Structures are given as C-alpha cells and as structure tokens.
Amino acid sequence: MTSLSTNRPPRVTIREVAHRAGVGIKTVSRVVNNEPNVAPATAARVRAAIDELKWEPDAHASNLRRTTTRTKSVGLLLGSVANPFSATIHRAIEDIAIHRDVAVFASSLDDEPEREIAAVEAFVRRKVDGLILTCAAHSQAYLTELVPPEMPVVFIDREPADFAADTVHSDNVGGAELATRHLLGFGHRRLALLIDRREIWTARERERGFLAALAEFGVSADTATIVADLSDQDAAERAVTTLLSVPDAPTAIVSGQNLITVGAVHALRRLGRHHDVALVGFDDVELADLLEPGLTVVAQRPQEMGRVAADRLFASLDTGHRLPPAAKVIPVDLIPRGSGEIRP
Amino acid sequence: MTSLSTNRPPRVTIREVAHRAGVGIKTVSRVVNNEPNVAPATAARVRAAIDELKWEPDAHASNLRRTTTRTKSVGLLLGSVANPFSATIHRAIEDIAIHRDVAVFASSLDDEPEREIAAVEAFVRRKVDGLILTCAAHSQAYLTELVPPEMPVVFIDREPADFAADTVHSDNVGGAELATRHLLGFGHRRLALLIDRREIWTARERERGFLAALAEFGVSADTATIVADLSDQDAAERAVTTLLSVPDAPTAIVSGQNLITVGAVHALRRLGRHHDVALVGFDDVELADLLEPGLTVVAQRPQEMGRVAADRLFASLDTGHRLPPAAKVIPVDLIPRGSGEIRP
DNA sequence: TTGAAAGCGATACCAA
DNA sequence: TTGGTATCGCTTTCAA
After folding, report:
1. Which residue of A has its CA nearest to B82?
2. Which of B216, B203, B139 is nearest to B172 (CA)?
3. Residue among A218, A196, A216 nearest A205 (CA)
4. Cα B299 to Cα A57: distance, rounded to the nearest angstrom
5. Nearest CA among A160, A157, A166, A163 for reference residue A206
6. What distance in Å separates residue A246's CA from the closest CA in chain B?
7. Which of A209, B231, B237, B240 has the fewest beta carbons closer than 10 A?
8. Gyration radius from chain A CA atoms
9. pLDDT of A4 higher than 80
10. How many angstroms separate the CA of residue B64 from the nearest CA in chain A?
C-alpha cells in the first residue's frame, strides 16, 4: 500500500470566500457572526460568495479561538427514555430546543447513582451548553467540581441535595394527599401505599402526603401498610398479592408511580379483586380510561414540566450566566375513572 | 458594568505537559493517541505529567487538524421520542452506545419530510459519527450530498428510497398477512384495514400483506374497506365510528399502527361494539392484556430492532467505512388475547 | 468600516 | 524512538 491518500475532501475555507467576495477574512467572519461595522453592500457580497461556494464555517476551528463557545447542544438525564413519563418530558424539551437549533442528548439512568455521575461527565466532556437532570444520586455535591461554573443546570422531577439550581417538579405531597383524601372520603380506613425506594425523593414526598392525609382524617398511621422498594412492575404485582392475602387486608391502595400502578392492576385482575379493592395511581398511564373499572389517577403534567424546565434553561443561557435558583411546582390533577371510587 | 472579564480559566496545554515530562509535544500527542514508537519509560513519564497537571486534550484543537475525527456521538431520527415504539428503539440503541462511551442525539420527525432533512443537517453539522434513521421523506437521495461518504447510515423501521444503506425493519408484509389470516380463519369475510398515510413505507407494506391474505382466502378486495391517512388517535376513532355506521359494515378490523389501535379501541368501546367487532392491532400497546376483551396484536420487537441497528452501525464504525448495505428483517409475533378471536 | 498579522491547541510530516 | 516545524480554519487584536 503506497498512497494512504488522506482523501480529505477539498474543503471550502473562509479564505476562499473572502477572496471571492473581494474582502478580507475578518469581514467574512464579521458577517457570519452578525458583528457590527459591516457596510450593507459588503455584507451582501459576502453572503453571495458564501452561498455560491456553499461554505460552512468549521465549528472546531471557530470554537478553538472563541472565548464563549456554544455547541448548541444540551444534555438530558432521565429515568429512562423508554418510560412514558420521561419520554413526554423529553419530547417537550426537544420541541423548545429545536426552535433554537439546539440538539438534545438524552441518557437513561435507571435510578442508579453511578450512572448519573457518568452521564454528567460524558456530557460535560462533550461541552454541552446546559444540563437538565432527574437526579438519582443521594447528593449532587459532585456537580460543583464537575460542571463549569457558568453552565446552567435545571433539575426536573426531583429536588437535588447539596447543590443549588433551578428545580421543576410536580406537587408530590399535594398529589398524594389528594389521592389519599379521595379514598378516605369514600369511607376507606385501611389503606396501603406502594412506593419506590425511599432514596428517591418523589417516593419520600408522596409518602409524606399520604401520611398527612391520614392524619387529617384522624386515621392512625398504624392502620396503614406502606410497602417501599418497589422499583418495577413485577415487584409491585407481588407486593399487592401478598398485601391482600392477610386478614384485615387494606381495602384501598395508593400507588406511587406508573410502573407500580400497572403491576398493581395486574395483581388485582389476577386475584379477581379489581371491582373490590380501590386503587388510585400517581401519574397517568395509557389506556387507563378503557380498563374495567377505569383507572383513577393523580395525573402529572410531564409536558408542562419539560416546557418549564427548558424555558428556564434557555433563559439562563440567554443571559449568559446562571440565574438565581428558583423552584417551580407543577400542579397535578385527580382524574376519577372508577377504580378510586369503589367503597370498602 | 466595567470589566467584561473574559474569565478564561488558565488552560493546561500540551506544551506544558511536554515541558514537565521533558519531551517534545509530539511525543505527548503520541502517548494520548496510543500511537506506536514510544519507549515505555517515556510514555510513563508523560502519563505522570498528564495526571499531575490534570491535562485534558482540547477536543476542538484535536479535531481541527485530525483527518479522522470522532465525536463519539450518533444521531437518531425517530417518529417521536414520546411514542412507545420509538422510545423502546431509542433505549435499546442507547444501551449499546453507552458501552462504547458514545452519546445519542435524538430527534422527533412526526413523519414530516422537511424535518428529516433538517435533522440530518443538524446532526451532520455537529459531526456525529453515524446516523440511524426512520425516514419520513419520499426519497433519501438528499443524503448523498448531505452526508460525508464515509459516515455510516442505518435505516430503521422503514426502507429508504434512492439511497443504499443498511436497513432494519419488521416483517411488515408477513405481520399484516398473519393478522388478516387470523381474522379470516375465524370466519370473517368483511374486513377493514386502517392505515397511516401511504407515503409511509410501513403503511404500504402492511396494506400489501392485508391484500395478500385476502387473495389467499379467495376473498375479493372489493369486499374490504381500506381507510388510509390516519395519522393520529382521533382520526382513527372517527374513522371506526364512520366505518361501523353503514349497512354491511366490516365485522373485523386490522389496525396498522399503535396510535390507530388505541383510537379504534376507544371507538369500539364508545359504540359498545367491543365484544362484537374483532380487532387485531399492529404493534403492541401497554395494558393491552388488561382490556376487556384483551387486545390481540401482532407485536413488533422494537428492542431487537434497535439492538440490531446499533450493532450494524458500530460494525461500520469499527471497520472505518460503510459496510456493503444489508437488510435485516425482524420477525413479528401474533399475541391472541381476545379481541382478535371474536367470530362474526 | 476594514483587513493584516498573531495566535488558539492540537496533529501531520519529515528529518534527525 | 524522537521532536521541530508547518499547518488546520477560524477569532482576536490592533492599526489603518
């Protein structure tokens, strides 16, 4: 083998454009970067030359010398891109980003703390302009040294610890209260709560709301069963099966998350108890209205969450630095469809 | 405001590392790029200097001069990141990419041709290493001039036109045949097919399969109703309502896509015909097994599709050039759950 | 309003 | 096995 032919395609450079337009390269640079002090006629000639030559500025070359470099990309950390809740957030963010010609990197964490850090590292290394993250780790202190001080960060769905930044999340306490109060209002006194691992902030918040509603109705927490550590559908299904097999079993269930809800519905159906045990799920699921009975849920607004988070991120990006951290709480909506209106 | 302070952090450069290690910069370059011809002792000294100075090579500077530049990112074009089918593909690809430290950009096209081209442009401009795309445009000829000749491209879910590259898709014709044959086997003779716009390749393929099965059973295509241009749930719901309002209405429905299936189920329920009109959907949907009757579907294997597509992309990337285009057809699975086993 | 010259931080080539 | 030097394509600086 002799000619290892670099085969580099004959790139069009700024120099050729400048020559074609009969100006200096600095003037071409001014035009493409919308800098002031270019005569309209000159700018027009330059633009014509750019079009004729089909020149595209080389991003690497620009960013090399530039002080404030933008990759026009953002990093998004989610539970899983395959989870409908996360996917809806993702789409909402993409819809805002695309208007600004910003591309979105997404990464699935599966609630594993190490993956959160690895993903942040990976995105920072790729020099994303900003980060939107659903945190999985116990503390976000690591962000202080990992993320450049001017890079905007927005937390979505969960509040961070040891790191101050914008946060957007559902009214978890209020939503769980609403669900629980709804069941209590229908006469239930033996309730169960099914939640994910307590390391997860939303699980803790929803538990707080559940307990607050019980207290409000003067129902002792001792009469309630709380099953935690339910991180997938199968675990939830097994938990409900066990739950209902004991004497004085709960007559109503609050599910703390969409996967748990689906698992619970499966269990109730298999046991033939779906017309008998009340169920309210946190977060809506597809086809919930077509089940028999319809599935009552406290619906979140993932699209709104994504939109608000993206707006906030771009606001920081526009001002050129992080805005003072603010927290935005998104309301939830109780949707009665049948399963939550069953009496004990 | 006075000091617009560039605030550029004092960057560590390769020069300082070379000085510290007592070598030339080219030797440092050799070490970080694992090039041959470096004495082990020298390499060790260089590595020590890199660690001490915490030097990280500047990606922009490297990529500027480098001929074969890798950003360790790939672009993924999907129907919508919020559609469960697309989202599952996305996740499968991410799971493979992450092992190679490759990040994934995703873009939702909503089946709009212009967005396909815009998304490809956006990704090429960001110098992704490869592209996986569900095409929405009529022709992919544009890729020839838009995409660098060595950049690997894999089509997923749909076959491209006017551009040869790897393709991964379901057995659409076979799947539609399977669904239709299933209904014909239960005695149905007046069938309806609900599909998306015929510009979409999968819609055309599934129509072919539907017609083939009819022919196989000696049923004239004239007795069948084909409703096309159904691109969302509402349209499907309306179509089914209209469909069943005429005399000699179809007794069985084949739905060509997940959104259409959900719309059809809604219509049947609203009309109270769900125990009466048979339905087989293409592509599985969440909770399908808990409906009454259960929803019979021809399930696709989105996870397998994503995995195969990603494997193929990385195989091309590993060899350093596009592999000869190959087509991989992924099997589908008929899952009988009740709605497809209703007799006329 | 304009442009010439001096980098930016790495890689490529070639001589030592 | 090494390292000097010429780039890479653009932004910055500064003088015209």
Report:
1. A87
2. B203
3. A196
4. 46
5. A157
6. 25
7. B231
8. 27
9. no
10. 6
pTM for the whole structure = 0.91
Answer whether A58 touches B (CB < 8 Å). Answer: yes
| Phi, psi of B10, deg, nearest 5 | -65, 95
In angstroms, the CA B178 to CA B180 distance is 6
Break chain B down into helix, strand, coil percent, rounded to 5.
45, 15, 40
Q: Are B280 and B92 in contact (CB under 8 A)?
A: no
pLDDT digits (tens, 9 = 90+) for A66-99: 777 788 899 999 999 999 999 999 999 999 999 9
CA–C1' span, B40 to D3, in Å?
A: 17
Nucleotide nearest to A25 (CA to C1'): C3
Higher pLDDT, B290 or A6: B290
Q: List bases in chain C with any atom under 7 Å of a protein Cβ.
A: 1-5, 7-13
By C-alpha distance, the chain A residue nearest B145 is A54
Q: B106 to chain A, minimum CA–CA distance in Å?
A: 7
Residues in chain A with CB shorter than 8 Å from the CB of B94 are: 81, 106-108
> From the CA of A285, how many Å to the C1' of C13?
62
Nearest to A87 among B81, B103, B107 (CB): B81
The nearest alpha carbon in chain A to B87 belongs to: A82
Q: Which chain A residues are Cβ-neighbours of B288 within 8 angstroms?
A: 287
What is the three-state SS of chain A?
Answer: CCCCCCCCCCCCCHHHHHHHHCCCHHHHHHHHCCCCCCCHHHHHHHHHHHHHHCCCCCHHHHHHHCCCCCCCEEEEEECCCCCHHHHHHHHHHHHHHHHHCCEEEEEECCCCHHHHHHHHHHHHHCCCCEEEECCCCCCCCCHHHHCCCCCCEEEECCCCCCCCCEEEEECHHHHHHHHHHHHHHCCCCCEEEECCCCCCHHHHHHHHHHHHHHHHCCCCHHHCEEECCCCCHHHHHHHHHHHCCCCCCCCEEEECCHHHHHHHHHHHHHHCCCCCCEEEEECCCCCHHHCCCECEEEECCHHHHHHHHHHHHHHHHHHCCCCCCCEEEECCEEECCECCCCCC
Average pLDDT over residues A275-298: 96
Put simply, whether A54 touches B (Cβ < 8 Å) is: no
Closest by CA position to A175, among listed A262, A64, A255: A255
CB interface of B with A, residues 251-310, below 8 Å: 262, 265-266, 269, 285-288, 290-292
Give A199: exposed, middle or buried? Use CB within 10 Å, 0-12, 13-18, 19+.
middle
Asked whether the beta carbons of residue B64 and residue A64 sit closer than 8 angstroms, the reply is: yes
Q: Which residue of chain A is at minimal alpha-carbon distance from B265?
A: A290
Q: Which of chain D's bases lie under 7 Å from a protein CB?
A: 1-5, 7-13
**Inter-chain contact A126–B8, Cβ cutoff 8 Å?**
no
Per-residue pLDDT tens digits for B159-168: 999 999 999 9
- Residue-level pLDDT, tens digit, chain B, 344 residues: 222 333 345 678 999 899 899 999 999 999 988 888 889 999 999 999 988 888 888 888 888 887 677 888 999 999 999 999 999 999 999 999 999 989 999 999 999 999 999 999 889 888 899 999 999 999 999 999 888 888 999 999 999 999 999 999 999 999 999 999 999 999 999 999 999 999 999 999 999 999 999 999 999 999 999 999 999 999 999 999 999 999 999 999 999 999 999 999 999 999 999 999 999 999 999 999 999 999 999 999 999 999 999 999 999 998 888 999 999 999 999 999 999 999 99
